[in-house]
Amino acid sequence: MKLRAAVLLACCCLSCGVAFAAAGPVPEPVRLPAAAHPDASQTLRFASAGSVRELSLADIEALGLHEVRTATFWPADDGVYQGVLLRDVLKAAGLGDAPAVRVAALDGFSQLLPRADWMRWPVLLATRRDGKPMSVRNKGPFRIIYPRDMSPALDDPIYRLRWVWLIRSIEAVAE
C-alpha cells in the first residue's frame, strides 16, 4: 500500500509539475478520526493584499491530512506528524500563488518561506503528533514540518529556522 501511495504521489507531482526528490519517507494521505483538540477554538490568520481570512483547526484538517515520520533538528521532536500540505492550505486561504509567505509565531518569531519550498517539498502544516492533537504546550496547534528525511538537501541549516511552531498567522509577501 505504501508503494502504491508513493507511485500515486509521484504521478500526481509529475502531472502538476512538482518534483520531489524522494530519498526518504514522503507524507502520505491518512484518515484519522476528528480529535478533541485542546486548542479547538484556535484559528489561523491568513493575509494577502489587504484581505484577511481566518480558518479554524477543523477547516484546516478538513482539507485532508497527511502523515510523515521524520527527524527534526531537535531530537526530542523527532516523530510522526500529521497535518495538511502547506501548499493545499495556502491555496484554500487564497495565498497559493504568493511568491513567499511570512509565518509568524505567538512569541513574535517569524520566518520567510519561499514558494519554492512548498512547491519542491511536501511541507506540512502539522496539527497532530503521533496522532494526538498538538497544543500550545507542545508547540502547536499549528507547526511547520519539513520532511527532513526525504532528502539530504533538507539537512541544510537554512531550513532549521523555517520549522516555525506556535503559528498565529501566515501572510503573503514579495520574496
State the shape.
Answer: globular
CATH-defined fold name: Sulfite Oxidase, Chain A, domain 2
Return the CATH class: Alpha Beta
Beta-strand percentage? Answer: 25-35%
Largest sheet: 6 strands, antiparallel
Q: CATH superfamily, called what? A: Oxidoreductase, molybdopterin-binding domain
Separation of the first and last Cα atoms:
39 Å
> Tally the helices: what do you get?
4
Mean pLDDT across all amino acids? 84
Organism: Azoarcus sp. (strain BH72)
InterPro entries: OxRdtase_Mopterin-bd_dom, OxRdtase_Mopterin-bd_sf
Protein name: Conserved hypothetical secreted protein
Keywords: Signal
Task: Give me the secondary-structure topology.
Layout: H1 2-16, E1 28-29, E2 43-48, E3 51-56, H2 57-61, E4 66-70, E5 79-85, H3 86-92, E6 100-105, E7 110-114, H4 115-120, E8 124-129, E9 132-133, E10 143-145, E11 167-173
Parallel strand pairs: 2-11
Antiparallel strand pairs: 1-4, 2-3, 4-5, 5-8, 6-7, 6-11, 8-9, 8-10
Describe, in short, the structure shown.
The protein contains four helices and eleven strands, in the order αβββαββαββαββββ. With 175 residues, the protein is of the alpha+beta class.
Could you walk me through the main structural features you see in this protein, from its secondary elements to its overall organization?
It comes from Azoarcus sp. (strain BH72). This is Conserved hypothetical secreted protein. Pfam families: Oxidored_molyb. Keywords: Signal. InterPro entries: OxRdtase_Mopterin-bd_dom, OxRdtase_Mopterin-bd_sf. With 175 residues, the protein is of the alpha+beta class. The protein has one domain (2-173): Sulfite Oxidase, Chain A, domain 2 (Alpha-Beta Complex), CATH 3.90.420. The protein has four helices and eleven strands, in the order αβββαββαββαββββ. It has helices at 2-16, 57-61, 86-92, 115-120, and strands at 28-29, 43-48, 51-56, 66-70, 79-85, 100-105, 110-114, 124-129, 132-133, 143-145, 167-173. Strands 1, 4, 5, 8, 9 and 10 form a six-stranded antiparallel β-sheet that branches. β8 (124-129) and β9 (132-133) form a beta hairpin. The chain is globular, with a radius of gyration of 15 Å. The protein starts with a helix and ends with a strand.
